[in-house]
């Protein structure tokens, strides 16, 4: 059996929200690295009374755009969904969360995960006249809704959480500055990281992201060495971490 790759004590900055970082941190530690948990976004659930008043009785599809969208929707929505509704995941990590929460996954975007991959699927081409609800956090990209609307669908949102800039103390910030690699899984996380850590130190170290869109934003912000994981799963991210450690 081949020896397991070792990160040889490399410090790896994990910027995911605290509730979603543990497994990735455990994998880094198991592979010989030192995980540095540095959540740059705080996720706050929105109470149901603040959700958009959307009837799900006639919907053709529910599209979940993140793990957080799944978790906060399931935690607070207590009405039985019709079997006819197609349940759609924007990627593998979202699909995994749906299954863990007891939801079916009828359509899943292929790698690389994201709105572009989902919109390219045959199942999302002929949607004229269909009622579609996108489950997401407050704000975010409009590409998915705009494109489906242009294809004739009727789009509504249910926004189930909001993102807030985290507030790490000075010790946490200093620890983060010592990292050898950084892992960032959204454009918002990338921008928050740059807001929380002054200076260009991290921009000259390896950055691992999960989409070309995040990579392009990182280039605009001055990052020099960027690797794109095949998808948003922890295993795909770890493969890029190992590749970078060689």
SS class: alpha/beta
Overall tally of structural domains: 2
For the largest beta-sheet, the strand count, sense and barrel status come to: 6 strands, mixed
Instruction: Calculate the terminal CA-CA distance, rounded to whole Å.
Output: 19 Å
- According to DSSP, the number of beta strands is 11
Helix content: 25-40%
Instruction: Please state the average pLDDT score.
Output: 91
Low-confidence stretches: none
Q: DSSP strand (E) fraction?
A: 15-25%
The coarse silhouette is elongated
Concise synopsis of the structure shown:
By secondary structure, the protein is α/β, with parallel strands linked by helices. The chain has two domains: 11-40 and 166-245, Rossmann fold (3-Layer(aba) Sandwich); 44-163, Rossmann fold, CATH 3.40.50.10090. The chain is 35% helix and 22% strand.
Description of the structure:
There is one protein chain. With 246 residues, the chain is of the alpha/beta class. It contains 9 helices and 11 strands. It has a 6-stranded mixed sheet. Helix 7 links the parallel strand 9 (181-183) and strand 10 (206-209). The longest helix has 13 residues, at 18-30. It is elongated and about 55 Å long. The mean pLDDT is 91.
